[in-house]
Each structure stands twice: as structure tokens, then as C-alpha cells.
């Protein structure tokens, strides 16, 4: 009879450990999912800042290119942001 009690106790312990492992794995899965979303959001933010910086700094860069062209006589062509956006439409 003692053997059955030991076996029952081992089965209950295994069940308890399995449930605990399941809880930990669910927590890890949700943590990784959140991390993935935050990584995508971070890269979207970086790209948006780069595009925004190019959009707002473009007039200044064109003026600098005109000044450089006037001083050296070399022609510098900078891409136009508006025509770049129109190419996607």
C-alpha cells in the first residue's frame, strides 16, 4: 500500500511541476511578444525620425549646396523630397 502512496505522491508532484512550468512558459511567451512589438515600434520610430529630419533639413542642405556650387563651380544635385514621395503614388 505504501508503494501506491509513493506513486500517487510522485504523480501529484509531477503535475504540480508541470503546471508551474506551463505558467512560466506563458509568462515568457507574453514577454517575448511584447519585446517583439516594442522592437518593431522602435525601428519605425527611428525611420520616421530619419525621414522627418531629411524633410526638414532639405531646404538648408540645398542652400549649402548652392553656396558650395557658387564657391567651387562644381554642381551638386540633392534629391527632392516631394518628388521622392510622388514616386510612391
Share of helix among residues?
over 70%
- Poorly predicted parts: none
H/E series = HH
Counting helices, strands and paired strands, the structural category is: mainly alpha
Number of helices: 2
In short:
The protein is mainly α and 89 residues long. The chain is 87% helix and 0% strand. It is rod-shaped and about 100 Å long.
Task: Describe the protein in words.
Helices cover 87% and strands 0% of the residues. The model has no long low-confidence stretch (mean pLDDT 85). The radius of gyration is 31 Å and the shape is rod-shaped. The chain has 89 residues and is an all-alpha fold.
What would the keywords be for this entry?
single chain, 89 residues, mainly alpha, 2 helices, 87% helix
